Amino acid sequence: KVKTGNLVIGTAGHGIDFNQTSSSTGGSSAEILDHYEEGLYTPTLSTNAGSSPITYTGTDMTAQYIRIGSFVTVSGLLHPTSESGSGGGSLQITLPFTPVTNLSGDGDIYFGSAFLILQGATVQGRLMSYISSSVMNWRINSDDGTVHDNLNQDHVDTDFYIGFSITYRTS
Length: 171
What we know:
There is one protein chain. This protein has 171 residues and is an all-beta fold. Helix content is 0%, strand content 43%. The chain is elongated.
């Protein structure tokens, strides 16, 4: 029992061991909670145009994350107000931890929610967050299900809000 203060794990790479459960893998590393972290980070919001991406900046460009074991939940409301660069492509943001990819042999396997508030343009349909490679992207799905497009610089102006939440695995 810890009646006051914090429980401190005194050595790196160790955690809380739940191996007294009835699972057949008792004592395995899968039953050790060895990482907890929460914080803020400033993601880079840009297009994936290779050598000349458009980079978006603004005063409200902070996201938050919580990592429990190998699961990370990231959420934020970004408000870019200016852009630099000339390349096009899909909008994407960096993540605080590198995602594990292709767990089931598929490509894009992590999906989350998103919304977009535009000041001078419109996007028809629903917005969804997804992770491809090591960045998060957004896909627009039309209400009738016939159009699927990655959110790109043609869909936004220089003053918009994008909110998102996604959970993914890291190593």
